[in-house]
Amino acid sequence: MSDTVTTSPVLSITGLSKRFGGTQALRDVDLNIAQGEIHALVGPNGSGKSTLIKILAGYHQADAGAEARLDGEPFELGSDHDRLRFVHQELGLVGELSAMDNLALSRGFARSRLGNIRWREQEHRTVELVHRFGLDIDVRRPLVDATPVQRTVVAIAAALQGWEADQGLLVLDEPTAVLPPGEVGKLLDIVREVRRGGASVLYVSHRLDEIFQVADRVTVIRGGRRIATRPVQGLTPQSLASLMAGEATERSAERPKVSATSRSGESALEARELTGGPLRGLGFSLARGELLGIAGLAGSGHDVLPYVVTGAWPGDVQGQLRCPARSPEWSDASRAARLGIPLVPGDRAAHGVIADFSVAENLTLPLLSRLRTGRRLLDGRHEAALVDDWVERVGIRTAGRDAPITTLSGGNQQKVVMARCLALEPEVLVLCEPTAGVDIATRLQLYDLIKEQAAQGLGVIVSSSDVGDLLALCTRVLVLRDGQVVREIAGEAITEPTLVHAMEGTE
């Protein structure tokens, strides 16, 4: 496992470790990025990639013992250094502002000696910078009017302001995650242009095809450890995916594997020709008591499907849905909300809980009609009994039902959201990133809860970017790519290498 470089490294890190409580996110990771190279960083979800990038950016602090050098000089990880710049997946742009204003926010406006803004000079500076990357846009228009690739290029231009040739390292974290397939090539051309300008690039991506198109070398991390650093030229997509997944499937051994429950044959939910966001004519069926996984890389549509089938997707939706136990008739997917399928959303803070409400208020929010008396007043005793029952059943650790939801840990907040959905006594439950931001102990408790509900006949859809969730829970997994189902994996065939290869298209 060689990590030698033919030129002096622009960035060298040795012994990088990071522990969060009982979780070892990174363990003695070494990383060397050569001058003028595009170096890819890959690994499955939960491997430690994000933690490494956040330590470089100063969001997390490395544990003691790590050493780093930038351009050969000692460098304190996380310190603000002009030769190390970032474009994060969220881009950090203000959509309501123009490209010109967004660039000025990061590096300041062009000003006269008296402090007045030189608008003409600022506009010329912005145009010159974006034109360097072949981007022809009106730099005075709000970025909400721009395409995803145009916004990404603006973010890269903002990061590179003030750089001279042969300077520094640009870190690109999942830069193509939100791009349509047709625009990925344009972004890769931009990355090559950055390298031609003299900078090195650390390129983080799940998409192996991009790695082979643009990278010189690739570092694989898994389970918080560096597995290998290899020249891309000596790899194949299959061999790289195997390094990422690990043929021994250590992760699956860490989590309880649910026994493959036979499908009852009685459908809980059926879908056909679903189209919305990246989804393109997608169809599937979910049996009663089945734990159906939805997997895919960013942009595949795996994280959109939960919102489409529950009526929570904000965009246009086409296709049909049917819950046979409710009605034999097909319903238009644009009216999916009428089916009453509850959703545990992927972003708990934004869409799962109401920060100003108590535990009880968050839990009973969709149940108010059931808790009213004949005078349409809330039955406080009924509400208290219901909340106390679910707090005990789900194992929510709280100071009391009236405690603010914000006093609970992330895992216990997730249990409140889960209890709220289950209290509706649904026939189908949809989970999007069910264990995001929860500790290992709570994760296992959620697994047990979900499996218990499925054993009682609840049909469950689990959409997760964490392969561990799919390994621990699902009896069948649908793998999505470009908005369509490209592979169905069932029973004992559900392993980490199989899932990774299927998502990457390297079977």
UniProtKB/TrEMBL annotation:
Instruction: Please state every residue range assigned to the domain named ABC transporter.
Output: 11-248, 256-507
Q: Which UniProt keyword terms apply here?
A: ATP-binding, Nucleotide-binding, Repeat, Sugar transport, Transport
Biased composition of type Basic and acidic residues is found at: 248-257
Q: Which Pfam families does the annotation name?
A: ABC_tran
Identify the domain of life: Bacteria
Task: List the residue ranges of the region (Disordered).
Answer: 244-272
Q: Supply the name of the protein.
A: ABC-type sugar transport system ATPase subunit
Q: Which organism is it from?
A: Streptomyces pseudovenezuelae
